[in-house]
Each structure stands twice: as C-alpha cells, then as structure tokens.
Amino acid sequence: MEITLTLKDLGLILIGTGIIVLLIYCIGLVKNLTVTIKHTNKILEDTQVITAIAAERAQDIDHAVEDVTETVSNISEALKGNQSTIAALSSIVNSLISLKNICTRKEKRAE
Fold first, then answer.
1. What are the angstrom distances between the C-alpha of 31 and each of 13, 23, 28, 34, 40?
2. Transmembrane region positions (predicted)?
3. pTM of the entire predicted model
4. 27-44: pLDDT as tens digits
C-alpha cells in the first residue's frame, strides 16, 4: 500500500495544523479576557461607590462653607454695627451645628 502526498496535500495539512493551533491560542485569549473583564467590572463598581461618597462629602462641605461664609460676613457686619449681636450669634450656632452634622455622618459611616 502506497500513500502519495503531493505538495498541495502537504500544504493543506500545514494550513489545517496552523488553524488548529490558532484556535487554541484564541480560546486561551478569550478565557484570559473574560477574567480581565470581570476584574475591570469590580474596579468600576468600587470607583462608582468612591465617586458617590466623594460627591456627597463635597455637598456637605459646600453647605458648611456656605454657613461659615455667612457667619463671617454676619460677624463683620456686626463689628461694623450693621447687625445685631443676637443674629451674629445665631449664625455662629448654625454653622457649628452644620459642622457637627458632618462629623456625626462620618462617624456613622465609619461604624
């Protein structure tokens, strides 16, 4: 029994073997990409949580800064004699309450 291989047959065998090897590499690549995408999704979820916390803190600080600014302006007006001392003291108390609320929120979240 004789087996005759032509150059065409040999070329087709080499091309077929190359395609099989390429498929094996592609399967490995897809497997690694799946793991990478899962890790990336976890990182993005963490980033969303951190961004939400940062935005909330920025709003809290903005309210506190507004209260402090109002207090400072009221104190300066009171020193100039344009406002009563009671209104200035109430503004100071309001700003201190705002700062206290920010601190208690941080403590509650830390627990």
1. 27, 12, 5, 5, 14
2. 12-30
3. 0.48
4. 999 999 999 999 999 999
